[in-house]
Design goal:
Layout: H1 21-54, E1 60-65, H2 72-89, E2 100-104, H3 111-120, E3 123-129, H4 131-138, E4 145-148, H5 152-155, H6 161-173, E5 176-179, H7 182-191, E6 199-201, H8 209-214, H9 224-229, E7 241-245, H10 258-266, E8 273-277, H11 283-293, E9 299-302, H12 307-316, E10 319-322, H13 331-339, E11 343-346, H14 349-352, E12 362-364, H15 370-373, H16 380-397, H17 400-415
Parallel strand pairs: 1-2, 1-3, 3-4, 4-5, 5-6, 7-8, 7-10, 8-9, 10-11, 11-12
Helix pairs in contact: 2-17, 4-6, 13-16
């Protein structure tokens, strides 16, 4: 037996004490052919093995967030999950199959419950949106953690010492941390002084909603009045409709503008109407909103609607308004800008990050400034300039393709061992 484990043919027997030269040559040729055949088989086995080992194992991923119906977090989580699913399902993404789960944080009773899910489902990466709401759940998940700040965690929750302690722990355990805006990134790096390459800026992407509604799938051909009548409760508006979309909780401060808007609307010949659409997030605050608005003629509250209906309503309204005390990055404003609808918003860091005053939208410092600032929307040339500039800004800075490319880099780095991001 040879050194490579190949059986060799014994020398042919001969009447002489040593084989003839001809017999010896034949013997060597036969063994050479067998060795060559064996080596080829071994190389073939090695090639198959290397090809199999070069393909990474399936990566199951879990995106976890609060998934309240009709909420911005739900939209963001589903969109980001779709990116990761495309990476693990396609060869060009470096994946070899797998599943991206989208889970509501409320589904898990404890961190231990979540850790057991991670182990059972062979999760290779956890993507958590919002450091406080998901932090206690994911901090000890046992696999790499990608943390995405939501907005209120950075802008509001960090000032509470107990909440800050929870957030600090999860930030420390995350392999990378995502911020939506430069302002959020600045706050993070100052508050949690880890190496700078732990943090990365990834602006939120916006789907091509204008194309969706141009094909009629969202019901954009239905008149505005018909859309308003289909709301619950039905809404009637004789003048221009301003739309404010927000979950009903104190930080969204949907009552901030109502007194000023009501007085301004009453003074105009065709009274504009402020329509607030929002789900009940904080029951006490939601009840306060309902009670207050019962006395108003030109401000009303409606229950949330499906995304395609909301996009159609947005497309038909006069402008989209935001009055939040703080924002990470308002999806409602981004979607309105993409759809070609002017935006007017309270001047806070999150809104100022995406709206350049009198260029891509309008900002007001105080509620009392609203009537003067909004006049620009009634100047045809200024209004059209705002719309065109906003759409160009969205295409350049908030495309889904740009967002996907950033998360693909993170996926490659964390799951496939690629080089660090620049």
């Amino acid at each position: 037996q040879g050194s490579a484990g190949t059986l060799r043919t014994p020398l042919p027997s001969s009447s002489s004490s040593s084989p003839s030269l001809e017999a010896y040559v034949q013997h060597r040729a036969l063994n050479s052919r067998r060795c060559s055949s064996s080596t080829q088989r071994e190389r073939s086995v090695k090639t198959v093995t290397m090809q199999s080992s070069d393909r990474p194992p399936p990566h199951n991923i879990c995106v976890v967030s609060k998934l309240d119906l009709f909420s911005g977090n739900r939209t963001t989580a589903k969109r980001i999950a779709s990116h990761f699913q495309s990476f693990i399902s396609s060869d060009d993404g470096g994946g070899s199959g797998g599943c991206c789960h989208v889970k509501d944080a409320s589904e898990f009773a404890s961190a231990e419950h979540f850790a057991a899910f991670v182990q059972r489902e062979n999760i290779a990466l956890v993507v958590a949106i919002h450091a406080l709401r998901c932090g206690p759940l994911v901090a000890d998940c046992g696999v790499p953690l990608l943390l995405i700040f939501g907005g209120t965690d950075v802008n509001e929750d960090r000032v509470d010492p107990a909440k800050l302690a929870v957030m600090t722990r999860v930030v420390a355990q995350a392999v990378r941390v995502v911020a939506f805006t430069e302002d959020m990134l600045r706050i993070c790096t100052q508050r949690w002084q880890f190496p700078p390459d732990k943090y990365i800026l990834v602006p939120q992407g916006v789907e091509n909603l204008a194309e969706e509604s141009s094909h009629g799938s969202s019901g954009s051909s239905i008149s505005l009045q018909a859309q308003l009548q289909a709301l619950r409760p039905p809404c009637r508006a004789d003048g221009d409709v301003f739309l404010l979309v927000a979950g009903l909780r104190p930080v969204k401060d949907v009552l901030y503008l109502v007194d000023v808007f009501e007085a301004w609307s009453t003074s105009r010949q065709l009274s504009p109407h402020l329509l607030i659409i929002g789900s009940c997030v904080d029951p006490d605050y939601a009840e306060l909103v309902r009670v207050r608005l019962a006395a108003f003629a030109h401000v009303s509250l409606a229950e949330p609607v499906e995304a395609n209906k909301l996009h159609a309503l947005t497309r038909n309204c006069f402008a989209v308004v935001n009055t939040s005390k703080s924002e990470g990055m308002s999806g409602a404003l981004l979607e309105a800008m993409e759809l070609g609808v002017p935006v007017i918003a309270r001047r806070i860091p999150g809104n100022a990050a995406i709206i350049q005053h009198e260029v891509t939208g309008l900002l007001f410092d105080e509620a009392s400034d609203f009537p003067q600032v909004v006049n620009a929307l009634y100047d045809g040339a200024k209004r059209q300039a705002l719309i065109e500039n906003a759409q160009a800004y969205i295409a350049s800075n908030h495309s889904v393709d740009l967002e996907r490319s950033k998360y693909k880099q993170l996926y490659t780095e964390i799951c496939l061992g690629g080089s660090s991001l620049p």
